[in-house]
Q: What sequence folds into this?
C-alpha cells in the first residue's frame, strides 16, 4: 500500500508541473524567461512519458474494440452460413421430388381416358406399409370417393373417403381391396386382392382363375372389362407363380404389383372438375 502511494506522488507532481508550464506559455503569449525555459527542460521527459502511456492505452482500447467487432462479424457470418446450408438441403430435397414427379409425368400417356392431378402421400398407417394412406388432394380439387389412384405406370388403389383437402386411399395390396382383373395375353379373368401372408414380400394374389387358363410367369395382369370402378387396361402387375387351388377347379396366381408401395411418395388421382365446381357453388 505504501509502495502504491509512493508511485502516485511523481504522477501528481508531473501533472502539476505540466499545468504550471501551460499557464506560463499561455499567459499573454510572451517570450519565456530563463526560469520558464528551465522548467520546460525538466518536465519535458515526463510529458513525453505521459504522452507515450496515453498512446499505449489508446491503442489497446482500439484493439479491444476491433476484436469485439470482429467477433460480431464472425457470428453473423456463421449464422448466414448455417442458413445457406439449410437452403441447400431444402433445394436438394426439392430436386429429388422434382425428378420423381417428372418421371411420373412421363408415364401419364399410359393412363388414357383419365383426367389426373398429381398428389403427395402425406401420411401412412403406421401399423403396416401396405395399409391405407392419405394424399393431399380432396373434394376442393375434384377428388371424390372411388377416384382412381395410379403411380409408377400402373394401378395403385382407389379413394375410399374424401375430405375437403385430402383423401384416404386403399391400395390394391391391402387385404380389403378387390379389383376385377384379367391376363393381358390370354384374356382370362379373375380378381386381385391383397393377402396378409404375402405382404412381407410385396406380392398380391389373383384368384378365381379358370382351371384351363394358360397363364405363364411374367404375364401381365390388367384391370378387366367387367370392372365397375376401374377403366379397362390399367396395368396391375406381372405373374410370378401359378398354382392350382385345393379343390382342383380353379387356379390362383402370385402377382408382383408394378407399384412399389414401400417407396410410394407421389401418385396421380382421377378428378371430376365439374363435380368440384358444382360443390363449390
A:
Amino acid at each position: 500500500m505504501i509502495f502504491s502511494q509512493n508511485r502516485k506522488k511523481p504522477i501528481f507532481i508531473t501533472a502539476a508541473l505540466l499545468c504550471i508550464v501551460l499557464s506560463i506559455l499561455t499567459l499573454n503569449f510572451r517570450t519565456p524567461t530563463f526560469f520558464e525555459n528551465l522548467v520546460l527542460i525538466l518536465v519535458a521527459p515526463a510529458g513525453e512519458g505521459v504522452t507515450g502511456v496515453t498512446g499505449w492505452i489508446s491503442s489497446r482500447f482500439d484493439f479491444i474494440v476491433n476484436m469485439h467487432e470482429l467477433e460480431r462479424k464472425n457470428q453473423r457470418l456463421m449464422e448466414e452460413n448455417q442458413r445457406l446450408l439449410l437452403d441447400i438441403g431444402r433445394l436438394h430435397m426439392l430436386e429429388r421430388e422434382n425428378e420423381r414427379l417428372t418421371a411420373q409425368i412421363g408415364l401419364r400417356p399410359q393412363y388414357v381416358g383419365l383426367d389426373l392431378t398429381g398428389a403427395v402421400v402425406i401420411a401412412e398407417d403406421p401399423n403396416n406399409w401396405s395399409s391405407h394412406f392419405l394424399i393431399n388432394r380432396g373434394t376442393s380439387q375434384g377428388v371424390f370417393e372411388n377416384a382412381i389412384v395410379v403411380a409408377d405406370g400402373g394401378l395403385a388403389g382407389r379413394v375410399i373417403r374424401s375430405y375437403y383437402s385430402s383423401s384416404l386411399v386403399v391400395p390394391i395390396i391391402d387385404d380389403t381391396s378387390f379389383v376385377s382383373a384379367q391376363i393381358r395375353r390370354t384374356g382370362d379373368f379373375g380378381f386381385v386382392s391383397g393377402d396378409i401372408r404375402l405382404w412381407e414380400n410385396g406380392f398380391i394374389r389373383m384368384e378365381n382363375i379358370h382351371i384351363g387358363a394358360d397363364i405363364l410367369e411374367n404375364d401381365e395382369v390388367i384391370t378387366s372389362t367387367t370392372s365397375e370402378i376401374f377403366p379397362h387396361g390399367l396395368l396391375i402387375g406381372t405373374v410370378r407363380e401359378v398354382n392350382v387351388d385345393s379343390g382342383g377347379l380353379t387356379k390362383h396366381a402370385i402377382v408382383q404389383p408394378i407399384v412399389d408401395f414401400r417407396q410410394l411418395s407421389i401418385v396421380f388421382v382421377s378428378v371430376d372438375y365439374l363435380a368440384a365446381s358444382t360443390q363449390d357453388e
